[in-house]
Amino acid sequence: MAEQIIILTPVYNDGESLNILLNELAVSFKEFTNAKFSVLVIDDGSTDSLDIKIPPPFSLQILHLHRNIGHQKAIAVGLAYIKENLPCDKVLVIDSDGEDKPEDAAALLHHSANNADKIIFAQRKSRQEGTGFRFFYRIYKFAFRILTGKSIAFGNFLLMPKPLLDKAVYYSEIWNHIAGGIIKTGLPYTSIATNRGKRYAGKSKMNFNSLLIHGLGAIAVFIEVIASRLLLFSLILIGISLLAILAVVGIRSFTDLAIPGWTSTVVSAMLIILLQSFLLSLFTIFLYLSSQSQRKFIPARHYKDYTGTVETIQ
Question: What is the DSSP letter of 260?
Fold first, then answer.
C-alpha cells in the first residue's frame, strides 16, 4: 500500500511562491513511487487571491482561516485539522516561500526510512539573510540556551509521523512555537543538516520585529523553567548581598581595615541589589502564577475557532 504523505504549508499573500514550490516539490518527489502526496495549504487570512495551480500527481485542499494569525499558529491549526480530518502516514511541514528547499524535503523523507518513530527537523547550516539578521539570530539562540537550558537550531521545516502528530496537537506549547513546543513536550526527534534557500519571489516578511516576536514565542514555551531560573538567580543575589553587607559591617565594627566612607557606600550598593533581587523574585512568582491561571489553547480542541471554508482542488 502506498504511503500517504500530506504536505502542509502556510501561505499569506504569496501565491506566486507557492506555485513555484509545488512544481519543484513534484519534481523532487518523483523518485518516491511508493508514496501518495497531497497538499494542505493554510491560507493565513490572505487579502490577495492565491490562484494556485496544482501540478500532478498532487491533490490539494486550501483551509481558509478567518484572520491572519502568523505562520506558527497557522501550522498548529493545520496539524490539528489533519489529525481530525485527513488520514495519512506522515506530514511534511514546509514554508511556501522557497527558503525551505524541496530537495531538502526529499532528504527528510529519505532520513525517515530509518527514523520512522521520530520527528525529523531540517537544521540550518547556513542562512541567506543579511549580517544584522544573522547577528540577532545568534543572540536569540544564545538567550534561548541561557534561559531554558535547551538548544534550538531548527524551525518549522519538519517531517512528522502521524502517531506523533496525534500527540503533538494536544500540547498547548506548539501554539506559540512549533519547534520549541516539540522540544518542550519531550516527543522524540532528530535533525539533518540543510542550507537555507532563497525566496522565490518578493521580500521576506521576517524582519527584526518578526524575529523578536518569534524568539519570544519560543522562549515563552518554557515559562516554568525560566521562572524557576529567575527565582533561583534572584535568591542567589539576595544571599550574596546579605553576606556582603554582614562582611562589610563586620570589618567596620571589629577591625581597623575599613576605609572612611567605604562602608556606607558598599552597604548602600548591596541594599540596592538586594531590593532589586527581591523585586525580581516577586515578579517571577507573579509571572508564573499568571501563566498558570490562563486558559491553555489546545490546538486539537480549539483550532476550529480560526478555521473557515475548505476548498478542494484536484
Answer: T
Quick one: cell of 171?
A: 500540547
Residue 263 in grid coordinates: 562602608
DSSP code, position 303? G
- Are 20 and 200 in contact by the 8 Å Cβ rule? The answer is yes
d(CA 143, CA 285) in angstroms, rounded, equals 21
Written as one letter, the residue type at 53 is K
The total of other beta-carbon atoms located within 10 Å of residue 309's CB is 10
Report CA-CA distances (Å) from 158 to 93, 107, 115, 140, 300. Answer: 5, 11, 13, 21, 19
Q: CA-CA distances (angstroms) from residue 233 to 31, 40, 226, 230? A: 54, 46, 10, 5
Give the chain's end-to-end CA distance (angstroms, integer): 21
Residues in the chain: 314
Q: Is the dihedral of CA 228, 230, 235, 239 positive or negative?
A: positive
Residue 98 cell numbers, joined? 522557497
pLDDT in tens, 120-150: 999 877 655 667 667 777 887 788 888 788 8
Give CA–CA dist 281/36, Å, rounded. 54
Residue in 106, 96, 121, 107 with CA at minimum distance from that of residue 197: 96
Q: Hey, is 189 helix, strand or coil?
A: strand
Q: What is the pTM (predicted TM-score) of this model? A: 0.82
Computed on alpha carbons and rounded to an integer, the radius of gyration of the chain in Å comes to: 25
Helices (H), 112-169: 131-148, 162-168
In 3D space, the residue among 124, 11, 154, 153 whose CA is nearest the CA of residue 77 turns out to be: 11
